[in-house]
Design a protein that fits this description.
This protein is α+β, with helices and mostly antiparallel strands. It contains three helices and eight strands, in the order E-H-E-E-E-H-E-E-E-H-E. Helices cover 30% and strands 41% of the residues. Strands 1-5-7-2 form a four-stranded mixed β-sheet, with helices on both faces. Strands 3, 4, 6 and 8 form a four-stranded antiparallel β-sheet that branches. A hairpin with a 2-residue loop joins strand 3 (36-37) and strand 4 (40-49). Helix 2 (53-67) runs antiparallel to helix 3. Pfam families: MoaE. Belongs to the MoaE family. This is Molybdopterin synthase catalytic subunit.
Length: 125
């Protein structure tokens, strides 16, 4: 499943959205807006959609499922203006194997960082 939203990501509801009937391992990684960006201080980030984000996220999910023994993948991205501590994205993976869950999650996180269908503008103090 993929979700693009201007609304805040609620961690409690995200766990319920991922299939986990095969058991094993469920890994959720939340990226949050941080204050320090190199030597600069940020007060937030603005994310703008510039293409088919759902399509790009679906391609990432399919790629993850091809490479690892994955039961389910949930990818979530925020758009709009986010403040310090707000959740930017979620990569959630369920798998019978914790090794596959961790490797797939790391891969998904790196792919989300490099998305072409969203732009990022730091808001510096």
């Amino acid at each position: 499943m993929v979700i693009v939203s201007k609304d805040p990501i609620d961690p409690a509801t995200m766990f319920e959205k991922i299939e986990k009937s095969r058991g094993g391992s469920v890994l959720l990684h939340y990226a949050v807006v941080k204050q320090k960006v190199g030597s600069s201080v940020s007060e937030g980030i603005h994310f703008e959609r510039v293409g088919d984000m759902e399509g790009e996220l679906s391609a990432i999910s399919s790629d993850m499922k091809r490479q690892w023994d994955i039961e389910d993948v949930l990818l979530v991205r925020r758009t709009g203006t986010l403040e310090l501590g707000d959740i930017i994205s979620l990569v959630a993976v369920s798998s019978p194997s914790s090794k596959d869950a961790f490797e797939a999650c790391r891969h998904g996180l790196e792919r989300l960082k490099g998305m072409k269908t969203i732009t990022k503008a730091e808001r510096f103090l």
